[in-house]
Amino acid sequence: MQYITQNRHGYSVDFSPYFADRIACVTGENFGIAGPGTLYIIDAQPQGLLLNKRLEWKSSLFDCCWSEINDNIIVTCSGDGSIQIWNISADNAPVAVMKDHLQEVYCVDWTKRRNAPQHVISASWDKDIKLWDPQKGICLATYSGHENVAYCATWSPHYLAMFASAAGDGTIRFWDCRTPSRCLKIINDGRGEILHCDWNKYNKDVIISCSTDNILRCWDLRNAKIPTITLPGHQYAVKKVKFSPHKENIVASCSYDLTVRLWNIALPNPMLEVIEHHSEFVTGLNFNLHRPGQIVDCAWDEHVKVYSPMSLQM
User: Fold this and answer.
1) Residue 283 Rama label (left phi>0; alpha psi -120 to 50; beta)
2) Are 165 and 152 in contact (CB under 8 A)?
3) Angle made by CA atoms 72, 240, 211, in degrees to the nearest 5
4) Can you give the pTM of this predicted structure?
5) Domain extent listing, the chain
6) Alpha carbon distance 40, 147 (integer Å)
7) How many CB atoms lie within 10 A of CB 78?
8) Where are this protein's WD repeats (predicted)?
């Protein structure tokens, strides 16, 4: 199934944690370089992917993440340095706009636990990570230390207050949100800019990263001097990487080489499948929490695609 984001180039996609058939996709005009952005809410129906709602922002939108406590709330971030909170059941304007970053905001992530304080973290080209209270619309803390663009910030699914950040300085940094003045740990890759990272959902000590050197690397936090697994195969920089929420060893990645690749990190030959169904950079992907083996991705070719790779059906 596919949906065309006419004249809007995709940056990120996220399946709803509440509804198996609902997807959010954020986009930008002119490949995100200049112009407005659009948030698409798309529903998968028997007849295909259908538009539920289209929400406009004055600047390109780079990332999105659903709330864990309200099925209508979603957070996005944009090139004008702001973060938007939307209620898709309400008006077409954000219910809150939060701004404290000095440059583009490239990543947002909502707290993964419904019984925990609800916070959002953001990563920006100003090199900082920030913690937000989305209900009050205020910045609670700033986490400084990266020496280049911060591309990614992601909450640990295991440790209540811990998150990881990845940046153009080739490091992954680990933080306790309660102590912004002190970084807990630094993984120094040093072989390229780290564009994204993701926690293993079944092993609290494992995280995976992807880099501009075209390679994915798994790290064990207990001994992170060298990667435990290295996954070459992409021909250009890897934009996003995700661990499966259903199987400990399954990984999906998307790249500027126009492909999505599936991996099983437990196998001697870990690459399972190469998917070539886009004609431009593939910039976003995610697993469906409700349907094991189903993936959504988006690309600069203005296409959002939902599919079930053959390698994940075994």
Assistant:
1) alpha
2) yes
3) 150
4) 0.96
5) 1-99
6) 33
7) 27
8) 70-96, 98-142, 143-176, 231-265
